[in-house]
Amino acid sequence: MKKIGILTSGGDAPGMNAAIRAVVRKAIYHNVEIFGIKNGFQGLIDDHIEKMDIGSVGDIIQRGGTILHSARSEDFKRDEGQQKGVEQLKKHGIEGLIVIGGDGSFRGAQKLTEKGYPCIGIPGTIDNDIAGTDFTIGFDTALNTVIEAIDKIRDTASSHERTFIIEVMGRHAGDLALWAGLADGAESILIPEKKDELQEIVDRLKRGQQRGKKHSIIILAEGVGNAFDYAEKIKENSNLETRVTVLGHIQRGGSPTAADRVLASRLGAQAVDLLLSGEAGKMTGIQNNKLMTHDIAGVLEEKHTIDLSMYQLSKELSI
Ligand code: ATP
């Protein structure tokens, strides 16, 4: 291959820029031309394709978001959209494509691969909801953002002796809530993978209160439901005054952590190596700190799972 392309798709995640940088630099290191496609798959259809050079990715390793921008494209979910995408790539002589994004983006990459156009996926989403990799790019940064926010909420929670319910992102996955809950010593963690009885949560809050605890933190993953509804239910079942904070998009922004930058650099470089060695329809990943390769088709079929021992531990530590 002499020309390859790169795009970012779906929700942006901190560390995507570090991955773009790694892909661009690694391609150039191998004397391969690299083209950036702006605005995800929609930009591919619309021919937002530009050649990148070493300087295109200077001074971006520390920046959140994605310099290639991202988009959600309904057009690309249809066969005509995908055909158009392949035509555009071929028009520029681009022989392979690297897609950074979540599972939706991987479906797009898989569709192109099935049409005979080689694609490699790099997992980039704060949700950490992709099978075949212990971590996705952006998860560690989002986790640290959540922790910082909770630490601040804790100050006001203890001053006013209140119970706070904090809703975090993660779509259908509970990773962000689980890790944040453990890192912040939350009283309860509500995640979609494990149904906690409301009574158990209330009992734990009351036990804390009885031993003089000044505040309580409950972390709720967005996949479980609405934090305001839970606050209402807790109030109905106890006399506890609750406050709700929905952290929202703050979790998607910010400068990537060292862990995310390193992960992005490793996965980005691996993706280029895979494409140049003739692989197609593969995802790069990391398991037990070793780089791994999986078929995208398999990754999409397999369900991402959380580490239930961590959930159990969080309960044991917040008795
Ligand atoms: P995040 O997890 O951050 O939301 P994601 O990659 O899962 O990221 P999606 O919105 O699900 O985000 O998908 C991103 C884009 O991938 C879609 O807008 C669409 O262009 C493309 N895509 C998703 N599903 C398909 C599909 N079945 N076929 C072709 N393209 C798809």
What features would you describe in this structure?
The chain has 2 domains: 182 residues, 3-Layer(aba) Sandwich (Rossmann fold); 112 residues, Phosphofructokinase domain (Rossmann fold), CATH 3.40.50.460. It is 43% helix and 18% strand. The strands form 2 sheets. It has a 7-stranded mixed sheet with strand order 3-2-1-4-5-10-11, with helices on both faces. Strand 4, helix 4 and strand 5 form a beta-alpha-beta unit. Helix 1 packs parallel to helix 9 and helix 6 packs parallel to helix 11. The model has no long low-confidence stretch (mean pLDDT 95). Bound molecules: adenosine-5'-triphosphate. Homotetramer.
Q: What is the helical fraction, as a range of percent?
A: 40-55%
Q: How much β-strand is present in the residues? A: 15-25%
- Poorly predicted parts: none
How far is the N terminus from the C terminus?
A: 58 Å
Overall 3D shape: elongated
Would you report the number of β strands? 11
Q: If you average the pLDDT, what whole number results?
A: 95
- The CATH level-2 architecture of the largest domain is identified as 3-Layer(aba) Sandwich
Report the major sheet: 7 strands, mixed
Tell me the series of helices and strands, N- to C-terminal. EHEHEHEHEHEHEHEHEHEEHH
Number of helices in the DSSP assignment: 11
Structural class: alpha/beta
Bound molecules: adenosine-5'-triphosphate
Classified by CATH, the class of the largest domain is Alpha Beta
Using the CA coordinates, give the radius of gyration: 21 Å
